[in-house]
Amino acid sequence: MAITTVQPVDETKDPIARDGLALNPPQKILIAGGVIAAILLFVYLLATQHVSQPMLLGIGLLLGYTLFHARFGFTSAFRRMASVGNGQSMRAHMLMLAIAVTLFAPILAYGTTFFGGPVAGYVSPVGVSLVVGAFIFGIGMQLGGGCASGTLYALGGGRTVMFVTLIFFIVGATIGAYHLPFWTEEMPAFAPVSLATSTGLGYGGAWLVSIAFFGLIAWLTLVIEKKKKAPKMAPLPSEKGWKRIFRGSWPLFAAAIVLAVLNALTLMTRGTPWGITSAFALWGSKIAAAFGVDVASWGYWQGANAASLQASIFTDSTTVLNLGVIIGAFIASAAGGLFKFTKVTAGNFAASVVGGLMMGYGARLAFGCNIGAYFGGIASFSLHGYIWGILALAGTFVALYLRPLFGLSVPKSNDSVC
């Protein structure tokens, strides 16, 4: 079956995918609004929460700012690799992961948080739940127009349809939380496997194995690019010199370094790596509870999770990080003069509904998304992170055949990749 290609119906006005190298003037009123919102939220958190929460807001702002400026994607990276063999973004992923494991190894082996608390990586079981969830997520992110981090930073950049994706991402995550005990208790699974602590390698040995694997993947992407004669990514407008920090696109490799450092800072601040989708399950469950649903009786909200359901969302560190990512991306888009609400069509609306539901549900089953499971899991030396990446890539291949049904494009071998 051939993969048909169609011209995307909405991306010509998408501020994140806009062609052309001319920079727009900064949207100063929007920049001021974003900065004021960030300051007000920071002050509120400083007055009402533990000091770690405003610190995490600051980290979230930098994460969103970085993601937008570099257009650093996971969805697009997998799609470029699967469709035309372009591995530029995948090599950036490997650099990001290499730096992350280098920073995580000593923190996990010997470290404590900035406040003296314990640290723990994301190491999760390998079983049916992971396989099904990651595969579903891989399909969903290609239909929904972005992964978990992509949804947040595209939303901050003004891509209107991502509001739809986020809403149904939350719905899917809530349903996934309700169903999770079935997948984790009734379906077969192996115990969590850490390359560092489950294999006898230690963190030093696990680091060496990880670095070798990342190098192998980077080399394979170069081989595939040469064999397929893959097109290069389209250039994006940018300032020169130090002004590039504030306006224009960042190099992918620079963003990879920054994201790895910020994830390590997240680990040192709250004791666990960066995550996104657990907050979606929390938001959706709180909304369901407001409508009379007895979510407190769900297995997902028993034990350690029970307190989160009863407390303010601002006590939830993942919620604070997510808000920071959205505001940071908003400020970055306004600085580049790119914030603009975009057109929603029947096709991308339907794709966002289906994709959001699949991502939300898949993320709960797979113990995380592209950030919590893939980035955070691999950085934590967890086997489940590698399996998540393989299954999500498999879902991407399937989604290449589904995207045209919704009027979404698939890159062709003779296209420049943007």
TrEMBL record:
Membrane topology designation: Multi-pass membrane protein
Residues making up the signal peptide according to the UniProt record: none
Entries under InterPro entries matching the protein: Sulf_transp_TsuA/YedE (IPR007272)
GO cellular component, one term: plasma membrane
UniProt KW Flavoprotein keyword: no
Compartment annotation: Cell inner membrane
UniProt similarity note: Belongs to the TsuA/YedE (TC 9.B.102) family.
Name by which UniProt lists this protein: Sulphur transport domain-containing protein
Protein's organism: Planococcus koreensis
